[in-house]
Amino acid sequence: MSSVTDRPGPVRFCRRDTEAAGLASRSLLIHTILMKSRLLIPRLRSRQRALLHMYRTVADFTYDLEIWMEAGGSLRYVSPSCLRVTGYPALDALRDADFFSRIIDADDFAKWRQAMDTGHAQDIPAMDFRICRRDGTRIWLSQETTRVFDPRGRFQGWRLSLRDVTERVQTRISLDQARQNLAERVRERTAELELSRERYRALSGYLQDRIEKERAHISREIHDILGQDLTAMNMGLHRLERSFHDPDDGRLAQLAELRALVAGTLETVRRISRELRPPMLDELGFVEAVAWQIRTFAQASGLRVDQQLGHLPDLPGDLATAMYRVLQECLTNAARHSGCSRLHVSVQTMDGKFEMLVTDNGRGITPEQADSSSSLGLLGMRERVRLVGGCLAITRLPKGGTEILVRVPLTGESGSCDCS
């Protein structure tokens, strides 16, 4: 017999042995995973139950209605406050898959559903909505929503805190209604004031027109009747004076005094007639009337008045009268209140607008004086300018003095000018 001798060399396995070993390894791996899963799942469930227990321990005693809603929309927990807030027991809410669609007002549910649908990707803002309680009454709830994540950062659902805010909402609605009522009353009152203002302006314009017509009538009466009578009286005195042949007759001196008195009275009558309604305003036009007014004012006041009167088109009668009266008031105020020694008057047309500028070198008007309701002269000027559709600005100059600027559109479009 021959003996078998072991020879050294590499150990070789067949293919069947390798596959068997692989199957054994995979089986062992699967078995290990299944064993770990069986151990891990109860732990996770136990942890969830512990977390839910902790949550319930706190939420069960909160005044607000607390709800834990899972990511799929089902309710995991509803606090006992559900009965007080909605009239439904918490258990009924947990069993009802359509609990929110049933209690939320139909007009508010679509908004609530849309907000909740966006809660997987972003935070849900606080919102108010109406619900219908079990007894049929309607109340307002305010919902605060918090997104819930597990320790690994995976989204688990939402924590809903709902509070009855009916009283607050009703108070807000009442305040809104009160504000609306107040706004409506303000609009009505504003409309009444605007109507009164328009009536006042119409009356003011009518009165201004009547005053000017009455002035013109009185001016003609004074000029035609008193002027003629005084002229006739002066001529009669002159004839009476010539009837005396003795130059030393003492009655001649009395006649001379009477003639001088009549001549002075006649000049006064003519002046009053011109002041009531300057005849050159109707006969020669606005520019000549302004030039005459400036000369007369300078002679009477002793102030120096520089003038720059440009070429003007024929102004409508109401505009010419209004601007003439405004100029008169400007000159009178400067002489009475400014303490100035020099004035400048400029009248021109520019860009389809009439423009009149009056400046002085006096002490200057203050904003309080310019806006004072007791400044009747300034109020009258503003009203006259407004009636012809223009604007008026009164400014205190930096180096002292006052500037009054008037602009009036010549196209008849009121409010289309600016004096700023």
From TrEMBL:
PROSITE patterns from the UniProt entry: HIS_KIN, PAC
Enzyme class, spelled out: transferase
CDD domains referenced in this protein's UniProt entry, alphabetically: HATPase_UhpB-NarQ-NarX-like, PAS
Domain Histidine kinase: 323-412
An example molecular function term from Gene Ontology annotations: ATP binding
Keywords: ATP-binding, Kinase, Nucleotide-binding, Phosphoprotein, Transferase, Two-component regulatory system
Catalysed reaction, written as an equation: ATP + protein L-histidine = ADP + protein N-phospho-L-histidine
Domain PAC: 125-177
EC number: 2.7.13.3
Name used for this protein in its record: histidine kinase
